[in-house]
Specification:
With 167 residues, the protein is of the alpha+beta class. The protein has one domain. It contains two helices and four strands. The chain has helices at residues 2-10, 15-67; strands at residues 81-82, 103-108, 126-138, 149-161. A four-stranded antiparallel β-sheet has the order 1-2-3-4. 16% of the residues are buried.
Length: 167
């Protein structure tokens, strides 16, 4: 009986099959982990792209609004606010293109007076008109169910000449 037990332990037939099956299980687990990791990375990249799109859309709204000096004529403001994208006639001087569909509101900050701190301006006989541009951009992609948004607040200072008393 002792010799039979030794023979069974020394008999290695079928051991290659067991090792091959164990290796297949290990390789399958590595493959599954790679698939899950890559799909997670794709979702992260898509979210990053969406937030970047939203940021640049909001930034475009700010820059398009600042580029048209007609947006800062106070006669257009209602309750100290103005939406520069309400004019839709491209032949108008007040027209602002809105390719990214950003929502923009320009607010006249009448409570703020004088030059902002750190501007380094000591000019006399000039006035300062303070504005705040609030731009909200949205993800432009139709593929993702979650839309990213980004809001940018940009302070703008308009320097205007005042009356030249005595000259």
């Amino acid at each position: 009986m002792l010799t039979t037990a030794k023979d069974i332990l020394k008999n290695q037939t079928g051991m290659a099959l067991v090792i091959a099956l164990l290796m297949m299980i290990v390789l399958t687990l590595i493959g599954l982990a790679s698939v899950f990791t890559s799909s997670f990375e794709l979702k992260l990249a898509g979210n990053k792209r969406g937030s970047t799109d939203a940021f640049y859309a909001a930034d475009t709204g700010v820059h398009v609004s600042m580029a048209n000096v007609n947006n800062f004529a106070l006669v257009k403001y209602v309750d100290n606010k103005f939406d520069p994208f309400t004019i839709t006639d491209p032949n108008s001087l007040d027209y602002n293109p809105n390719p990214t569909k950003a929502k923009v509101v320009i607010e006249h900050r009448e409570n703020e007076q004088g030059a902002p701190r750190g501007l380094g301006m000591s000019a006399v006989q000039v006035g300062y008109v303070h504005y705040l541009i609030q731009s909200t951009g949205y993800d432009q992609s139709d593929l993702s169910p979650l839309k990213s948004t980004c809001e940018i607040d940009e302070k703008v200072l308009r320097i205007v000449p005042t009356a030249q008393g005595g000259y």
